[in-house]
Design brief:
heterodimer, A: 114 residues, mainly beta, 6-stranded mixed sheet, 5-stranded antiparallel sheet, 11 strands, B: 115 residues, 7-stranded mixed sheet, 4-stranded antiparallel sheet, globular
């Protein structure tokens, strides 16, 4: 079992719809959770971080965390063709203290159809 | 510059050659990470520095890989006697100390192709 799992997709949604991206993780000690967007040929770009159970909204993006179920999701409302990219879920396993490395899933490829 | 910079952006090496990849983190960022990203996969951790101290190198795949950050700013990842399986994008990320210090900001990466 991989430490961070995502459906590889591709996931296709029509323009204006809600895109739902899911991620599960295996380490119950995980503390911090991130969503990165990666356009083809580019480096990952941080779009959301979430540290506690519940929802966190930022513009069209909502991250949801459920530590009991070891589940993180990203909702993209009013999806635009420019949202077409690979979305990477990342988990930091270090509680408190200094920064430590992220463990990434393989990413979900999202295509928003005009 | 405002972001993490990496050079070169592209590197082609013949099998057996040594390569050196450079990372210039965001000014003032204490922590620096190197990741390797194979095609179609998420980045995988290689090594981590806090200032000049290499605190974790558990992800380096072999003793052919070596990283340094002698003055706590610029870092170099060196790969000796490159092999075809070393072909990947090498990403550098940095993060400041303090909460939330876990947010990592990536550079554009160096795409290494070993022929």
């Amino acid at each position: 079992q991989k430490e961070v799992e995502q459906n590889s997709g591709p996931l296709s949604v029509p323009e204006g719809a809600i895109a739902s991206l899911n991620c599960t993780y295996s380490d119950r000690g995980s503390q911090s959770f991130f969503w990165y967007r990666q356009y083809s040929g580019k480096s990952p770009e941080l779009i959301m971080s979430i540290y506690s159970n519940g929802d966190k909204e930022d513009g069209r993006f909502t991250a949801q965390l459920n530590k009991a179920s070891q589940y993180v999701s990203l909702l993209i409302r009013d999806s635009q063709p420019s949202d077409s990219a690979t979305y990477l879920c990342a988990v930091n396993r270090t509680p408190g203290g200094s920064a430590r490395q992220l463990t990434f899933g393989s990413g979900t490829q999202l295509t928003v159809l005009p | 510059g405002a972001g993490v910079s990496q050079s070169p952006r592209y590197k082609v090496a013949k099998r057996g050659q040594d390569v050196a990849l450079r990372c210039d983190p965001i000014s003032g960022h204490v922590s620096l990470f190197w990741y390797q990203q194979a095609l179609g996969q998420g980045p995988e951790f290689l090594t981590y520095f806090q200032n000049e101290a290499q605190l974790d190198k558990s992800g380096l795949p072999s003793d052919r890989f070596f990283a340094e950050r002698p003055e706590g700013s610029v870092s170099t990842l060196k790969i000796q006697r490159t092999q075809q399986e070393d072909s990947a994008v090498y990403l550098c990320a940095s993060t400041p100390e303090g909460v939330p210090s876990y947010e990592q900001y990536f550079g554009p990466g160096t795409r290494l192709t070993v022929t």
